[in-house]
Amino acid sequence: MAVPKISGQTSLKLGASVMNSRVVGRLLNAIPRTHRPCGMILMWGLFPIFVLFTPEGFAKRSEKPTHCNTCTVQMKSGRGVWVRNPKRAFGRKATIDLFLAAVETVRTTFSGTPDLMVGDISFQHGGRMRPHRSHRDGRDIDAGFYFRNGRARRYFAKPRGRSLDLARTWTLFNALIATGQVEFIFVSYRIQRALHRYAQKQGVSKRKLRRFFQWPRHWRRRVGIIRWERGHDDHFHVRFRPKVKEASRRELLKGE
Ligand SMILES: [Zn+2]
Fold first, then answer.
1. Separation of CA 17 and ligand 1 centre (Å)
2. pLDDT, the chain, mean
């Protein structure tokens, strides 16, 4: 929205000129002498409103970021990730740190791990990011999968047949959930099934599998951390909790 720029000083002058105008003078004259102090108090009470409701005041409020500048950081390519569009890769510090730490876990577990493609996170000051409904406050990350051929992707690709690198992808999901700060991981039902089978073979307990996966329950049931949501067959979407505990972040980053 284009808002004409009016400096703070100008808006003060505007407010003052309104106060000193003839209209105000006449209004005051219309008030009986005995009631004039009340009139003056009322007028000066309204003065801040004149100043606040100038276009500048509106502009300031309309541009107000959803989260402060200092608490968003930009994810950059390197450290095991490749960022598609840096302008759309701002997140809360905790989101970025926890995600990169999970990627690091994959890299230390498996040598020769290719870079993971990262798509949209949020804008620097948050707000609506088309075409998403979320990605507004720096706690959602879209990322691609690891593929068996070990090639780093520069686009989101749908895993076909056995092309999904189950070992690395499961390690990443497991590390993300282990932070205790992941609310959801959205991924297609088919990929859930493949990961569930892989995890089961690795000896992951039934209880943990039930807590982690929506599969084999119906895709419309709102259960499990890893669950279905439309449009997540060529990438996954991880959402961190609104408030990440400092302690858990420190603990996770200790190993770095
Ligand atoms: Zn997403």
1. 51
2. 82
